[in-house]
């Protein structure tokens, strides 16, 4: 009877959390309340809760927090040193005669930049450069926004910063060849879908009406040496070919960006540039860091509590990998609005349930949950940089969702197939 009551309370609280998340509730508050509620429901002793739920997970998250900080800083440095702007303006020169080709190049550039750069601040800083370029070429706003957000989403498959955030849900999943062979395939698949979307809207792009948008006053306009254009992918290349951890890889790329753009010629200028970019970058992701620290508490509470129902879940969850993949292909949009398939939402509890059963390999579960989450990151309005993009372009939310959803869903279906064959 006690187990039945506990199970009912968990289900009710889980449903209430889903509703809260999907209605735009603050996730930091939601995760903290859920951590407390599930600790109480699970009758976890106070001394265990204090140490194993509210202390150790947060302390152990320090390494991942550094990944997020350095990724955000690197993205800000790419913008403030003029590298991102220079790449974008060179692409714009193609736009007059071949706007479709230029749009494809912008999508590729966006993906390359965010293969290492991270954070809403970086997305905004790059977006205020790229959107005016696309609008001036006649790219319809709904297409420009979806191209931008889905290209960032594609890059997130190999972004070491986001990868290290998601591994908190799946113990044993590490950055390396086993994951990257899937990550690069998934990124390529989504970029192919983005290109297909651009070609689909090709006639509207070629016949679009140019819109002139004033550039942001604080955006660097200087040109830099084209050799700096390789810097956005340097951290990933160092990780792949030299097996470097993301922290030194991001740090060396950031230092190279300063040095190769002349920002280290003067000690005073270098220190000023370093401090300003770091301050802005950390401010951009401060709220995210707090939310993620609280999320580790909820994740630990979920694991402790769900462990009591392992046998029950084993009897309910189908043990067929193929069946789960097909099911996820169908219900993938449940990741939208922070739903039960979005790891930065109610999906945190779903992941805890899957993990608690011990029925599936960690890498398979990672792919099973991350691919739908990437769908939301690419085309859902609750993702921070997607919301900013929609507001910047003065685009209706409904238009954004209807434009991006079909293409993001296609990419998700294909990448879930890749999970089955590669993970």
TrEMBL record:
Keywords, comma-separated and alphabetical: Membrane, Transmembrane, Transmembrane helix
Transmembrane annotation, as ranges: 6-22, 29-50, 65-87, 94-114, 143-162, 182-202, 247-264, 285-304, 316-334, 341-360, 400-422
Protein name per its UniProtKB record: Gluconate:proton symporter
Organism phylogeny: Bacteria, Bacillati, Bacillota, Bacilli, Lactobacillales
């Amino acid at each position: 009877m006690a187990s039945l009551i506990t199970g009912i309370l968990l289900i009710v609280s889980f449903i209430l959390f889903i509703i809260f998340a999907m209605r735009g509730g603050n996730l930091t508050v939601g995760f903290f309340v859920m951590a407390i509620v599930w600790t109480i429901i699970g009758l976890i002793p106070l001394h265990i809760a204090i140490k194993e739920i509210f202390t150790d997970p947060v302390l152990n998250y320090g390494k991942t927090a550094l990944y997020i900080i350095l990724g955000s800083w690197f993205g800000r440095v790419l913008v403030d040193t003029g590298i991102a702007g220079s790449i974008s303006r060179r692409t714009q020169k193609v736009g007059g005669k071949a706007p479709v080709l230029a749009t494809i190049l912008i999508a590729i550039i966006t993906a390359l930049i965010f293969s290492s750069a991270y954070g809403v601040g970086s997305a905004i800083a790059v977006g205020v450069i790229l959107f005016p370029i696309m609008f001036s070429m006649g790219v319809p706003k709904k297409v420009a926004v979806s191209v931008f957000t889905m290209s960032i989403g594609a890059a997130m498959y190999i972004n070491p910063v986001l990868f290290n955030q998601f591994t908190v849900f799946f113990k044993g999943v590490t950055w390396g060849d086993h994951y990257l062979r899937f990550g690069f395939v998934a990124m390529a698949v989504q970029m192919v879908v983005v290109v297909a979307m651009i070609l689909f809207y090709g006639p509207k792009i070629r016949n679009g009406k140019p819109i002139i948008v004033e550039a942001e006053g604080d955006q660097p306009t200087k040109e830099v040496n084209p050799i700096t254009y390789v810097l956005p992918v340097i951290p990933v290349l160092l990780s792949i070919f030299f097996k470097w951890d993301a922290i030194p890889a991001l740090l060396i790329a950031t230092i190279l960006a300063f040095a190769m753009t002349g920002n280290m010629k003067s000690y005073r200028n270098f220190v000023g540039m370093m401090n300003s970019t770091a301050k802005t970058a950390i401010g951009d992701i401060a709220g995210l860091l707090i939310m993620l620290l609280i999320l580790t508490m909820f994740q630990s509470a979920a694991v402790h509590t769900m462990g009591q129902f392992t046998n029950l879940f084993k009897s309910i969850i189908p043990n067929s990998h193929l069946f789960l993949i097909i099911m996820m292909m169908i219900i993938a949009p449940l990741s939208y609005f922070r739903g039960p398939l979005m790891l930065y939402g109610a999906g945190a509890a779903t992941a805890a349930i899957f993990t608690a059963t011990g029925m599936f390999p960690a890498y398979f579960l990672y792919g099973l949950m991350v691919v739908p989450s990437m769908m939301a990151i690419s085309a859902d309005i609750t993702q921070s940089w997607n919301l900013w993009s929609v507001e910047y372009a003065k685009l209706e939310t409904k238009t954004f969702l209807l434009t991006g959803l079909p293409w993001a869903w296609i990419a998700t279906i294909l990448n879930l197939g890749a999970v089955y064959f590669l993970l």
